[in-house]
């Protein structure tokens, strides 16, 4: 049996918009963490992403990806900046991003504009919780729409971040060895 492999996700091959925020200073650290702009997912997650893209397309929507596979070294940078396990996985435990099975994303309407999700990506606040009470009705609707698309495609959500989805059972997989795979791409 062959090991699952990382697959590159591109607008041309997957019909998604990609804005890898950690390759820019537009992230919670205020500095670029990734040197190389490559969006990667482990093969089973890539298959589920294709399903999500198709489901969204039927609703005349598209997906914008903010993050996917994340090298362990990048996880350490995020943890050093915000050592809060509510939002950042402790590096010893490992993030499902570092397993290639997690993706951060939002929805785009037919004009290419992001749907209002009430907070920005990586807003590490209680308002970022999927079902945070008191958010406007249209925000709740948009979050539920994203949730439905991603669950139907085979992903699950975590409570604290409306943008984060991962494959069920991801914690049983090993972290990807960045040095052996040649994927070390930090600034």
UniProtKB/TrEMBL annotation:
Pfam families given in the database record: Peptidase_M15 (PF01427)
InterPro entries xrefs: A_A_dipeptidase, Zn_M74/Hedgehog-like
Binding site for Zn(2+): 97, 104, 164
Annotated site, Transition state stabilizer, chain positions: 70
Catalytic activity line of the entry: D-alanyl-D-alanine + H2O = 2 D-alanine
Cofactor: Zn(2+)
Residue runs in coiled coils: none
CDD domains: D-Ala-D-Ala_dipeptidase_Aad
Note on how the cofactor is bound: Binds 1 zinc ion per subunit.
Keywords, comma-separated and alphabetical: Cell wall biogenesis/degradation, Dipeptidase, Hydrolase, Metal-binding, Metalloprotease, Protease, Zinc
Gene3D superfamilies referenced in this protein's UniProt entry, alphabetically: 3.30.1380.10
Molecular-function annotations in GO: D-Ala-D-Ala dipeptidase activity
Class of enzymatic activity (EC top level): hydrolase
Function recorded in the entry: Catalyzes hydrolysis of the D-alanyl-D-alanine dipeptide.
Xref: PANTHER family: D-ALANYL-D-ALANINE DIPEPTIDASE
Protein name, per record: D-alanyl-D-alanine dipeptidase
């Amino acid at each position: 049996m062959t090991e699952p492999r990382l697959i590159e996700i591109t607008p041309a091959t997957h019909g998604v918009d990609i804005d890898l925020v950690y390759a820019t200073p537009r992230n919670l650290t205020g500095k670029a963490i990734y040197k190389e702009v490559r969006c990667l997912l482990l093969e089973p997650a890539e298959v589920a992403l294709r399903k999500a893209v198709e489901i969204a397309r039927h609703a005349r929507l598209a997906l914008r990806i903010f993050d996917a596979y994340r090298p362990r070294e990048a996880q350490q940078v995020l943890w050093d900046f915000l050592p809060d396990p509510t939002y950042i996985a402790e590096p010893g435990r490992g993030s499902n991003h570092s397993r290639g099975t997690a993706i951060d994303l939002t929805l785009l309407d037919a004009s290419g504009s992001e749907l209002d999700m009430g907070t920005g990506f990586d807003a590490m606040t209680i308002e970022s919780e999927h079902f945070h009470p008191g958010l406007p009705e249209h925000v709740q609707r948009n979050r539920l729409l994203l949730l439905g698309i991603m669950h139907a495609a085979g992903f699950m959500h975590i409570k604290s971040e409306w943008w984060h989805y991962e494959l069920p059972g991801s914690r049983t997989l090993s972290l990807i060895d960045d040095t052996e795979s040649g994927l070390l791409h930090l600034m």
